[in-house]
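Data availability excerpt. The first of two example chains:
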Amino acid sequence: MEAYLDNSATTKCSSKAVKLMTKVLTEDYGNPSSLHNKGMDGENYLRDARSIIAKSLKVNDKEIIFTSGGTESNNLALIGTAMAYKRRGMHIISTPIEHPSVANPLAFLEERGFEITYLPVDHSGLIDLKALSDEIRPDTILVSIMHVNNEIGAVEPIKEAANIIKQKNSTTLFHVDAIQSYGKLEILPKKMNIDLLSVSGHKIHGPKGSGFLYISEKVNCKPILLGGGQELGYRSGTENVPAIAGLGVAVEEIFKKFEKNQNQLYELKDYFVDEVQKIDGVSLNGPLDVHGAPHIISVSVEGVRAEVLLHALEEKYVYVSAGSACSSNKPALSKTLKAIGLNNNLLDSTVRVSFSVHTTKEEVDYALEQMQEIIPKLQKYTRH
């Protein structure tokens, strides 16, 4: 038996997406910028995927820019808009619990003279909306807030934040990192006053190396990759047609049964939460109600280092993660867990469990069975 519960790190690629990608790689392999029929075939795959994605967000096709994934989308959104609007102001607002692909570009901008304000978050990881309102200034050009935190699953009040931003300064742009929420929670940029939205393909059963950035047609964003002017000039470089085609298939599949998939995830989460808390020394972080994502659970285990638990579970073919998979190859103390005020003795004792639409109750039961057996043994071993 195997239980893959690290779906926030990556998901298994859709078999239908793999099949189409193989066809594009071996048969319809033309460069989409070429004027002959092979090139037109490539262009058609781009057009179809763009249309599918735009429909899922209820936006215009030309507002979808294909990228290599979430990191590039976040970098383009932050650096591209900061460069485009720096004459208007150099103040940006974000949070201390952002993914490194947001936190590091912000640090890059700070080194170049931009002022970054970080909003406080509560014990559940939710932002302080009053603080957001207080911090917006005439020279605030951008606010960047993730929709779902990748470690503890906190669902930020994006719609309320957007309303505050636009009321306080209608020219301030709003960027949302939706990498952990797209395909799991409803998110409609135009209805929710979102100007830029980042998404990664491999979090929703698309291929790695695929993603997109929604850029509202009203927004000016300078490219950070210069070259032949592909993707409406926003992102030069020959498009990764096989990955983009696969991404389109994955998006179509996940939105076809959106409500059913979402309900299934919530049911699995509720079940896991109830059962895992029966183990002595186990506590959970982040919201467990509607303010929590349906697929992410942060589990702290008193007296057991996260890396030790991770490898003990791995030996039983149960796969979880320690912190953000993208932060480094070796787990480090989480900035998110520090920001929510988690006890110091639990900072290095927290793992993340994350589900996908393909996660079964059998997998969850097997993982719980192994945790119930392994955790007491590890706690006994580490006690002094």
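And the second chain:
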Amino acid sequence: MPLNRTFLFAPGNHPRRVEKALGLEADGVILDLEDAVAVADKPAARKPVAEALRRPRRGRGYVRVNAPASPFCYRDLVETLHDKVDGVFLPKVESAADLHAVDWLMAALERERGIADGSIDLVPMVETAAGVARVDRILQARSLRPYSGAWRVKRVAFGAADFSLEAGLVPSLDEPELQSARDRVVLASRAAGVEAPLDSPWFHLRDMDGFRRALERSRRGGFQGRLCVHPDQVPVANAAFTPTPDEVARAERIDAAFRAVEAKGGAAVEVDGQMVDYPVVYRARALLETMREIAAKGG
């Protein structure tokens, strides 16, 4: 599984910001055609976004199109998707029908352009009251049909700003007002058999200590990564979702001890004063796999 610690937004109509973002250490860069681009500029931004995603980059390259209900979504997809695009972030998803329609169009474009079926990722953004309330049904849509042994929708992203606005919430700095929505997105994701979700951007750009606390809450709360809106957030978020040396060493002890007891027919062992059985072992092995992916990427 590719790393999904950080996804950095860059406005699709700002070439210098796009160029900088594509050279950073984010696991993915999202060239934005939605909130970061004024309505009058949206049509003209499509071609530069498509061209930028053909150029070499460090991480994976995504485009955030406009919402399915908008008059822009169709042309956004038609004019930007090609074989160098890793995926699409789809904002304000509110129903399974939204995913059905966009999946159908993406599949048609893949066939037309000689791209392997289902190879372009689709990340629904759950960021409205209706989206959060229906997230279970939205995620059921991802099991429509497999493409080449893989599903197009592998994870969803939570959008706190739009959700707060629509729900009439005024979150405080540590955002306890949003915890129930986050919990719902995490639980629905795992119940549907998809990856852990991505958490919302942090907009308090000067408060890096607050950002670190938010990242720790995300990690402990079941998210696998964070959307970022400023380049300075990328190394901080990468570090937060990278296991520490102590965590790696403990995972290695757990794995080694369990392999030894399992070879003798056992299914539990004590490590560092804790009983270790299969759920603990699976978590430790997942952590070690994450570290192998990080090492393969170069940190």
